[in-house]
Amino acid sequence: MTTTLVLGAVAYDAKVVTIWDGFQRWFDAQGLPFDYVLFTNYERQVEQHFAGACHVAWNSPLAWLEAQRVARARGRTAKAVAMRDTDRDLTSVIVVRADGPIRSLDDLRGKRLGVGAGDSPQATLIPLQHLAERGVVPERDLAVQRFDVLVGKHGDHVGGERDAARALMQGSVDAACMIDGNHLQFTREGTLPHGATRVLAQTAPYDHCNFTVLDDAPTALIERFVALLLGMRYDDAAVRPLLDLEGLKAWQPGRTTGYALLERACERTGWLQPFLRRLGAA
Amino acid sequence: MNRTAIDLGGLGLDQGAIVLLRQALAAMAPGDRLAVSGTAPALLVHLRAFARAEGHGFEPGPADSSATLVRGTAASARWQQAERAGSASADGTVAHAPPHWGLAARGAAVEAGSPAFHFDLADRDALWCDDAGELYRRAMAGQWDPAQAIPWDAPRHHPAFVEAALVQVLTYLIENETAALIVPARFAARVHPHFREVMQLLAIQAADEARHIEVFTRRALLAGLPLGLSTCGGQTSLQTLVDEPEFALASFLLSVLGEGSFLHLLGFLHVHAPDRCTAEIMRLAAQDEARHVAFGMAHLTRHAALDPTLHGRLRVAVERRHAALQHTAGLNAEVFDALVLLAARELTPAGIARGHAAVAELQQQMDAGRRARLGKLGFGDDTAALLSSLHTRNFM
Fold first, then answer.
1. Cβ contact, residue pair A234, B55, below 8 Å
2. Mean pLDDT, range B170-184, rounded to an integer
3. Which of A178, A201, B190, B293 could link A94 by a cystine bridge, Cβ 3.0 to 4.6 Å?
4. Does A90 touch chain B (CB under 8 A)?
């Protein structure tokens, strides 16, 4: 019988080791034997999740859809058991130069749009879908320039969005896509000078990462894992550094109602197909 | 439930409006609602991101220029387990300062979970004296600028042998003041910053010695002579001081016995200085040393009153140091001769007799001074006399 819960996570940054080492110590102290494996990209993580390498995967929204589709194709089920408070109700924005001529989405026709990494839900797939659903079809009606930083990590690294923002200020693109919070961060840090940009469009709210489990996960361990997560309190000095590192104030139960926009983006572009074909799930 | 509103005007969250929001939210209870309005571009985009990142709820308003924030628990949760690191006043110290108060100002509210610092001098009884703050302020007020305070261009008319003797004595002083800098500097880094007045006193003591090293060196080089001799015995004696790990014992050996003896030596050099420049240097250095002795006496007197074992340990420290040095030469002959020559001023039997008598008197004064200070610390006359006699013959 499995006695140690094994989590899978993608190493998008060196701090990932610090984060999960810290969680490991804390879970151990709470009586939950815990270990983790790191993957270099989400596709490998989803594939290995199904191969049994881990019991729970810390998935990007795109990886969640990948896991869900593979599960469906194999007659299995995937479930989102928990997520950060900061994973709920994100929006992305399309930003233009305040002094430029672009005033509406229609003005984007024939222009160059800077996006993040090709596999970034927040900085590429979702904002492009937002445009397509309003009749401005990427690649057909406007040119898309990708700022691919760490492809395979689904945009977890902020570098692609920052590069797109810089390109906007340098004039090599006419608009750029980013998470709402990154627009605030970029203007506060000066990557985007105050007053130099205007938010042209904002997507509908969507959800981000979740802890994904498959139907063969060890139930008691998962229940204990989720109970411990939901019990972590920001006023507890022992866990606050971990929450700060992972970027949340409280864990929330998993929900899957916030992925529809991304799902439509994947359907429109066929983004998931190569991966699903490789796993025999297309 | 409170309901509050704030109008940010044209101020954006990237221009500091976050400060206004945090101030408003801090005054509210979790669950309270804050209606926010403003005209800054991207106000709602940024409000949503801000609320999510800081753990507040976000509800867009009916217009593009307003929204409601629902105050979350995280902002105050960070400080729920914070504790005050004593209080800022001079009587606000605690008996033992815990490692996790670290570098925090005394009296600050320290967030729970702060890293532990390993300041091993964290017990008030081992280092505190009630007038530490006053001693520090006096030390600050007594600082002097060598460029202004010393008459470097004062005339020098003494013979060459007197200058050579002076350079030898200054070489010895520099070596001793280096030890007197290193010892408090090391302890300053070991004292828990909660006892900030002690830390400050030790720091300014080190700064005093740095200045002494500077002026002694500059005076020694004034006539163009090379510096004098540094002996094995002198350095061995100072090494026993530098290597003493316990604060009370090091302070006793350095400040009470060593710097206490140096007060007399500097007084002697002031009187017998061959020029006004040297005389002024010795006077000012003695002022500084007197403060160092005063602090040593003050905290050891308090410590001895609280810890009945301290007297025994101080006595053992003197005896141990004496045993370690008994096979060394003590004060080197070159320094002794140089002191005689400075007081003699002439290479004649009568002059040397005068100088020799002056140095003998100096040593008696040093002994009397040490016994008086030991008496104030609570040692009986016989023990004081014994310990004074066992003090290093190297003076410091």
1. yes
2. 97
3. A201
4. yes
